[in-house]
Amino acid sequence: MSKSMIAKPDTGTAGPSRRRRRQADRREESRERILDAAEALFAGAGFEAVSMRQIATESGVDTALIHYYFGTKAGVIDAVLERRADMVNARRTASLDAYAREQAGQMTGPGLVRAYLEPTFSFILDGTPGHRHYGAVIARLNSAPIPAEIGHDASPFDAVTQRFVELLREVRPDCALADLYWFYHMMSGAITLSLAQTGRIDHLSGGLCNSADAATILERMCEVFGQGIEALPASTDRPAP
């Protein structure tokens, strides 16, 4: 009988290995369920109005498990933000880099603004309910003072924001840097209000405008801010040549 046909003894490692994988899968499922519940609650009521007990009830777990995974409520919202931030940032960065590469030396304000905005709206407003909840969480955090528990540490979106401002400087090298940051600030406010989908413009316009119409919002913002970056005045503080 050949050696290949001789049955090898069962070392007992396969069973425990499978059990460990199942346990890891269950832990990941519990963690995702907690984050999904927290994301929806934060989107609807805001960070400060939501309790750990509410998150536990909504996700069907004990509060002790939430503390085990995330420590505090601030730890929960940090995890909520970071979970999708990588995907949003990857899309934005890829879009900006592709535009800069394809239009090297010929970038325009409207083109750059669109390259930044399109991945944001396609991900958050045209995605799953979870993506929409994520957008609402971002909108709430951006439109109110940052809660003390969260702190003022760097945002996961800072790097891609700085990349956008760098490209704005290439498009408008004659503008003061502060003006470009103010431009981003104003555009960020419009993004925040759009993500919040408050319905305010629906009421004011008598139904002419729809705050949930992502495609129209995107086109309007590209038009307004694309023209806006080109209309910024040149800096008067530049030294004479």
What is the compact description of this entry?
The chain has 241 residues and is mostly helical. The chain is 68% helix and 0% strand.
Report on this model:
- Helix 1 packs across helix 2, helix 7 crosses helix 8 and helix 8 packs antiparallel against helix 10.
- 68% of the residues lie in helices and 0% in strands.
- It has 241 residues and is mainly α.
- The protein has helices at residues 14-45, 52-59, 63-70, 73-102, 109-124, 129-142, 158-171, 177-196, 200-204, 214-231.
- Residues 1-5 have low confidence and may be disordered.
- The protein contains ten helices and no strands.
- It has a domain at 84-146 and 155-231: Tetracycline Repressor, domain 2.
- Residues 28-88 form the HTH tetR-type domain.
Q: Roughly how many Å apart are the termini?
A: 92 Å
At CATH level 2, the architecture of the domain at 84-146 and 155-231 is: Orthogonal Bundle
Write out the CATH superfamily name of the domain at 84-146 and 155-231.
Answer: Tetracycline Repressor, domain 2
Our count of helices gives 10
Low-confidence segments, given as residue ranges, are 1-5
What name does CATH use for the topology of the domain at 84-146 and 155-231? Tetracycline Repressor, domain 2
CATH C-level class of the domain at 84-146 and 155-231: Mainly Alpha
- The helix fraction, in percent, is 55-70%
Tell me the overall shape.
globular
Percent of residues in beta strands? under 5%
* Radius of gyration computed on alpha carbons: 24 Å
Listing every helix as H and every strand as E from the N terminus to the C terminus, the arrangement reads: HHHHHHHHHH
Mean pLDDT reading: 86
Which structural class fits the helix and strand makeup?
mainly alpha
Q: Got a strand count?
A: 0
Largest sheet features: none
